[in-house]
Amino acid sequence: MKKVALFLANGFEEIEALGTIDILRRAQIPLKTVSITNDRNVTGAHDITVLADITFSELNFSDVDVLILPGGMPGAKNLNEHEELKKRVKEFAEKGKNVAAICAAPMVLGGLGLLDGKKATCYPGFESELVGAKVTGEKVAVDENIITGKGPGFVFDFALQLVETIAGADIRKEVQNGLLV
User: Fold this and answer.
1) Active-site residues: which are they?
2) pLDDT tens digits, residue range 44-87?
3) Which domain holds residue 10?
4) In 3D, which of 57, 56, 70, 90 has the Cα closest to residue 23?
5) Fewest C-beta atoms under 10 Å: which of 69, 118, 129, 173?
6) Is the bond leading into 152 cis (omega within 30 degrees of zero)?
7) CATH number assigned to the domain comprising residue 46
8) Where residue 1 falls among pLDDT bands split at 50, 70, 90?
9) Taking 90 as the threshold, does the pLDDT of residue 24 lie above it?
10) Domain count for the chain
């Protein structure tokens, strides 16, 4: 099964990150949380501190198939300022590997030119950051290997789409039923 890395930056949106982690782990998808700093403790936008599994420098990208960027502010801005992360996101997307971002985080993809001509969605007010995208305003937009989500209220839709993309429709339905969604 594909392995996932979800990146945490100070100021991340807790619902988006932790909800996605929870749902993917319910689907038994191998997932590592990755702090983009050298400190495994990462504090979200609402002062909830979590302990990431590993730091960015410890991640072996050759063991990962899917990259996920949660939103939140200033979390998405912090992700967007991490040059090595952006380099890896671009490499993954160009190789056809899945890259996902929710809320404000699709701005990272837009800034890298990865949304050019693709359907994408984001938190209202960040549409101008989705350079070249066909902005849908939908809960979740999937275009080839790029998955974007609108925001925290749609974390179930976003994470369940990731489950379907990674593990298939049957596993999605099983997890969805267990969550009563």
Assistant:
1) 103
2) 999 999 999 999 999 999 999 999 999 999 999 999 999 999 99
3) 4-179
4) 70
5) 173
6) no
7) 3.40.50.880
8) confident
9) yes
10) 1
Place of tokens 């300022």: 81
DSSP string across 60-109:
-GGG-SEEEE---TTHHHHHHT-HHHHHHHHHHHHTT-EEEEETTTHHHH
d(CA 79, CA 88): 12
Residue 84 · residue 56 · CB < 8 Å: yes
**The two three-digit tokens of residue 92, written as one number:** 């993954």
Give the whole-number percent of the chain exceeding pLDDT 70.
Answer: 100
Distance CA 164, CA 170 (A): 8
pTM: 0.97
DSSP for 120-158? E--STT-GGGSTT-EE---SEEEETTEEEE--GGGHHHH
CA dist 13 → 55, 107, 175 (Å): 18, 15, 23
